């Protein structure tokens, strides 16, 4: 007799376990069976309580999800993280900006040095002081084609001549020698094989 009761209880337990999945939709005899058995079986009572909790959390079938509630819940979870990320960005930004500004200042300083170095040095002049006149040429000289630079330097050094300008479109050079030596320097240059022409630019007395 006891064995039959055990078998009956086992079959009822298995049936109730199958019905627990539909605990929220049961009615009539099935609901009464589940409630009666759960009052006697601790396992089924715990399972039934779990199903009730799950049903309370799970939305009803066919119901549209509450996007606003879900979004609010998500924002509440992400809020502290976003604030921490923003705080980290604020701490990192000044460091990055410091390096960028330092590099920019170095570039500006380097350009300033280059530009200052390219400007010709100028003598200090008091306002109203006369401008220093550029040396005026007093000889016009044309050299033979193919004359090397060392030869030119040697010729000019021999006459103590200074190049003032040139070459012109015709290939002439403007030279200046010491006052009073124009005629002598021109004569000496005309006798040099490397010189095609040498003419004085001074007015005849």
Quick summary:
The protein is an alpha+beta fold and 205 residues long.
What does the secondary structure layout of this molecule look like, with pairings?
Blueprint: H1 2-19, H2 28-40, H3 42-57, H4 67-118, E1 139-143, H5 149-158, E2 162-165, E3 172-176, H6 182-190, E4 195-200
Antiparallel strand pairs: 1-3, 1-4, 2-3
Span between N and C termini?
161 Å
CATH architecture of one domain: 2-Layer Sandwich
Number of helices: 6
Mean of residue pLDDT values:
69
Can you put this structure into words, describing what you see?
This is Zf-HC2 domain-containing protein. Keywords: Membrane, Transmembrane, Transmembrane helix. The chain contains 6 helices and 4 strands, in the order H-H-H-H-E-H-E-E-H-E. By secondary structure, the chain is an alpha+beta fold. Among the domains are: 56 residues, no CATH class; 62 residues, Alpha-Beta Plaits (2-Layer Sandwich). The longest helix is centred in the middle third of the chain and has 52 residues. It is rod-shaped and about 145 Å long. 10% of the residues are buried. The N terminus is likely disordered.
Feature tags:
single chain; 205 residues; alpha+beta; Alpha-Beta Plaits; four-stranded antiparallel sheet; 10% strand; rod-shaped; disordered N terminus
């Amino acid at each position: 007799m006891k064995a039959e009761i055990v078998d009956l209880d086992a079959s009822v337990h298995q049936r109730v376990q199958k019905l627990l999945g539909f605990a929220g939709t049961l009615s009539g005899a099935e609901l009464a069976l589940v409630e009666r058995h759960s009052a006697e079986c601790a396992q089924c009572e715990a399972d039934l309580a779990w199903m009730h909790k799950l049903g309370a959390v799970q939305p009803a079938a066919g119901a549209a999800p509450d996007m606003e509630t879900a979004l609010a819940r998500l924002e509440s979870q992400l809020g502290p993280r976003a604030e921490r990320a923003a705080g980290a960005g604020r701490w990192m930004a000044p460091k990055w900006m410091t390096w960028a500004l330092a590099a920019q200042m170095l570039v500006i300083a380097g350009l300033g040095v280059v530009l200052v170095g390219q400007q010709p040095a100028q003598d200090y002049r008091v306002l109203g002081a006369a401008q220093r006149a550029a040396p005026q040429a007093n000889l016009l000289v044309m050299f033979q084609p193919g004359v090397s630079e060392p030869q030119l330097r040697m010729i000019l050094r021999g006459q103590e001549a200074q190049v003032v300008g040139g070459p012109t479109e015709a290939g002439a050079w403007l030279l200046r020698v010491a006052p009073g030596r124009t005629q002598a320097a021109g004569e000496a240059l005309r006798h040099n094989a490397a010189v095609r022409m040498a003419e004085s630019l001074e007015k005849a007395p």
